[in-house]
Amino acid sequence: MLLHDLEPWHFAIAGAGIAGITLTLQAVGNRALGVSTGLEEVCSLASNAPYFGRAELKSHWRLVMFAGLICGGLLSSLTSGGWQPTWDAGMLDTHLHLDHAAKVVWFFAGGLLTGVGTRMAGGCTSGHGIYGMARLQPGSIASVLAFMASGIITANLLWRVIAP
To answer: Which of 24, 53, 84, 123 yields a CA-CA distance of 20 to 30 A from 90?
Structure first.
């Protein structure tokens, strides 16, 4: 409600901000921006599993980024009139009429596949798409192409085959 009457900012401002953060991380600390490794860093705080014992997860600098994501979401919620949990899945509901249990399974499966793909690709869409592609890393270019192809195929299967 505080900022509810303001016009949204142009998307290029956020893009310039992300570029600035990415370049600063590279220039100042030789560090890569990526959310999946940040999530691993959060998990390393609660687990003694050998996977989470890697040296790159011990500096904890990504925790600041995660705190910023949470605080940004909270600030957005507070300034836009609040946050209301919902089971509404938009066009998915219109065509498939899933009950709550089926939606939980659907979203859990989607999250699981996203996590598996992230590990197979060696990083997430933000790490590969923002940082890796900016550095013209062949693995990142291939990963982003795979992410995009998967999204296009899935969207077409959903909206042209399963729920036309």
So the answer is: 123
- Tokens, residue 86: 């919902």
Q: Distance (Å, rounded) from C-alpha 134 to C-alpha 95?
A: 39
Asked if residue 96 and residue 75 are part of one domain, the reply reads no
Confidence at 126, pLDDT banded by 50, 70, 90:
confident
Quick: pLDDT tens for 134-148.
Answer: 888 999 999 899 989
Q: What is the average pLDDT value for the chain, to the nearest integer?
A: 84
Last residue of a domain, one of 84, 107, 138: 84
**pTM (predicted TM-score):** 0.68
Q: Does 74 lie in the same domain as 2?
A: yes
Task: Give how many domains the chain has, as a whole number.
Answer: 2
What count of other Cβ atoms lies within 10 Å of the Cβ of residue 77?
12
